Structures are given as structure tokens and as C-alpha cells.
Amino acid sequence: MHNLTRLGILEIAFSAVIVPLFLFEGAGRLFPGWLKDRKQLLQAHLDYFFMGILLILAGTVLQPIPVWITGPLVVGSLGNPTVFLVNSFTPNLPQRPIYRALILLSCGATAFAWAALGIRAI
Questions:
Q1: Residues near 17 by beta carbon (within 8 Å), at least 6 away in sequence
Q2: How far is the C-alpha of 1 from the C-alpha of 17, rounded, in Å?
């Protein structure tokens, strides 16, 4: 099994197990005031799941993938959903310039990697 496939499975597992735990009432009582934005957490949940599916696809169907594409693909697939996860706990963080730069880096890495994979597939 390719490492991208393994990472995709781990992302789906994280989405299915860890993220929903924060949505349960018990977690809200255990850590009151910790979760600030439920919509951002739900978005993180879906994004981890879909990024995991895309990594499994890339790891099984689109082989071989060069390292110069794999690196940005991994950075983007982990970074994009993590942005939503962080925003669900600290919603005022996106106003900081360094955080905005990290968001742009993550989105840019994902767009670059999938565009490169698309060109290679043709």
C-alpha cells in the first residue's frame, strides 16, 4: 500500500472518530467554552474526509507520483482541513497575517499538486 493511501485512511479515521467527539454534549461539558464555532468544526470534519478520499485515489490510481507533487499534495491535504479545525476553536485567528499566509500556502499547495496530477494524467 502506498503512503498516500495510508495517509488518506488516517485522515478518514480522524474525521470519523476524533472530530465528532468535539461535537458531543459530553465534550462541551468537559471543556466548556472550548469550541467556539460548530460550523467550522463540521467543515473540518467533511474536509478531512474528502481529502482522505482524494489521497486514497492518488495513492492507488495515479501512480507513480513524483516527490515534487507528493510533497505539496500532503501539505495541502493536511493543511486545508486543519485551518477549519483551528478556526473552530479560535475564530479570530484568521485576521493575523502569518495565519493568512499559512492558509494561502496550504491552498496553493493543494491547487498546484492537483493541477500537476491532472497534467500528468493527460
A1: none
A2: 22
